[in-house]
Each structure stands twice: as structure tokens, then as C-alpha cells.
Design goal:
This protein is an alpha/beta fold and about 160 residues long. It has one domain: Rossmann fold (3-Layer(aba) Sandwich). Helix content is about 30%, strand content about 20%. It has helices at about 5-20, 20-35, 105-115, 130-140, and strands at about 45-50, 65, 75, 90-95, 115-125. The chain has a 5-stranded parallel beta sheet. Strand 4 (about 90-95), helix 3 and strand 5 (about 115-125) form a beta-alpha-beta unit.
Length: about 160
């Protein structure tokens, strides 16, 4: 997805987010569930693919990241080459992100590098059942993992 298309999608989602209280409630519930499973080891709590940044209401100290800069994002990050030092992250959170990875093994390898011993990766992902395909295929503008070629791992230089 190009930056212009991504920006249009984020702008559209930003408008929807602020006019759909039910959507905010659903995501707040997801964030509350994630909060219950956070590791208590030292280090930062980071959300990859923060989108609208709604997690801040539940976890005010969470570092918000995305592939592209937005006013509410703390830093731009690529899951295949995170800018964080080794073993500095206590919790790495993702909501509806992992299914977009073309090289999930490379991403998990990078997560292992930045996570502190005892740290956690906590993901909330859609179920790709028949109903999931209908909901995400018809009502969700972003592609789902099955629609793209996925390779577990590749040379990191090629995974950007």
C-alpha cells in the first residue's frame, strides 16, 4: 500500500473513529483485555500499528508506532527492523496487525530481539473463518493475509 493510499485510509478511519462510539467501546474492551496480560518485567510497552492511537486511553505510557508518521504517533517503525535496542521492550502489542505481515518469521525474530527476558507479545487478530472472510473481505478495506503471498522468513534485506 502506497503512502498516499495509506494516508487516505487513516484519514477515513480517523473520521469514523470519532463518530462511532460503539467502535471505540469495542477497541477499548480489547485494550482492557490486553492490559490484563501485560508482563511486569522492566522495559517499555509498545504498540505496533497503532492506527488511531486509541490504546492511549487504556495505557497512557504506551509508545505508539506506525509505518507512517501521524500527529498522534510517537515514532515510525517497521516490524522487520525495529529501532529499539536489544531487550528493552516489556510488552509488544498489536491489534489487527500480524495478519498483514508478508514475512511473519522475520517479524517474530525481530520481536524476540527487542523483548526483555519475560517480555510478551500480545496480539488481537481476526479469525479467518468463513464469517471472518465475509466481514474482512466485504467490510474491511485492508487486505487479509490469505490474499497475499506469504513466506515465513526471507533475507532481512528483502523484507522491507
Amino acid at each position: 500500500m502506497g503512502i498516499q493510499l495509506h494516508n487516505e485510509l487513516i484519514d477515513k478511519n480517523h473520521q469514523i473513529w470519532h463518530h462511532k462510539p460503539l467502535l471505540c467501546m469495542v477497541y477499548t474492551d480489547l485494550y482492557q483485555k490486553m492490559k490484563k496480560h501485560l508482563s511486569n518485567v522492566s522495559g517499555k510497552t509498545v504498540e505496533l500499528g497503532s492506527g488511531m492511537g486509541g490504546i492511549r486511553e487504556t495505557l497512557p505510557d504506551c509508545v505508539l508506532t506506525d509505518l507512517f508518521p501521524y500527529p498522534w504517533i510517537d515514532q515510525v517503525e517497521n516490524a522487520y527492523q525495529l529501532s529499539f535496542e536489544n531487550e528493552t521492550i516489556a510488552n509488544l502489542l498489536m491489534v489487527d496487525v500480524f495478519h498483514h505481515f508478508r514475512y511473519p518469521g522475520n517479524a517474530l525474530h525481530e520481536f524476540q530481539r527487542v523483548l526483555n527476558s519475560g517480555g510478551r507479545v500480545i496480539m488481537m487478530e481476526p479469525a479467518l473463518s468463513l464469517l471472518g472472510y465475509i466481514v474482512y473481505g466485504l467490510l474491511h478495506v485492508e487486505s487479509i493475509g490469505k490474499a497475499k503471498s506469504i513466506t515465513w522468513m526471507t533475507d532481512k534485506k528483502k523484507s522491507n
